[in-house]
Amino acid sequence: MLFESPIPRPATRIREGVAHVPGFLGVSAQAGLVAQARELARRGRMERPVVGSGQMSVHTLSLGQFWAANPYRYVTSVGGVDAAPIPLAWSELAQRALVAAADIAPELVPWATGEFRAEAALVNYYAPDAKMGLHVDANEESAAPVVSLSIGDEALFRIGHTEGRTRPWNDVTLMSGDLIVFGGPARWAYHGVPAIRPDTAPAGCGLREGRMNITIRQVGL
Question: Residues near 163 by Cβ (< 8 Å), separated by ≥ 6?
Fold first, then answer.
């Protein structure tokens, strides 16, 4: 079974620079983040970006800076509207996440000592049939790790190598509350979400269906 996972689920160094910390967020913390994200989306721009010649199946909200496509870049405003700031609590959460990740992936230690700046966050909502193809997060000047938090339905996270979308790759089941951080040699690895497992969101997480993913990044040097 693709999404089945043994219990207990220990924190794991998936490969050099990639840390998976199951259950990093408790259910009440998950619900709090969902509530904050909903309020930010009501006041912001949550949309399905057009990438290349197609439209993503994932709805995205940008905070701190807008992630824009065609061409891919970060901008501080769109149509004269500035990006909403990243909540301070989210910045602090990202730093705690890096500390937890560095405990199991020593390549991340330099970023767990307070050097990380949360400058852009993406809130991605995956409907049960949504997915995200393999891609590289290459629009940031900084080599700082990407902090990624999952809430809601389980997802298959796939991370490959830096040379292209072909094998070998690692598949990781991300459950509600899980943290994954990738940096160091894996910072520019191809990664994506090829599948969501519907009806697996835990009660009380704030989502009845689908998956919310929050990624927090440092953009500048």
Answer: none
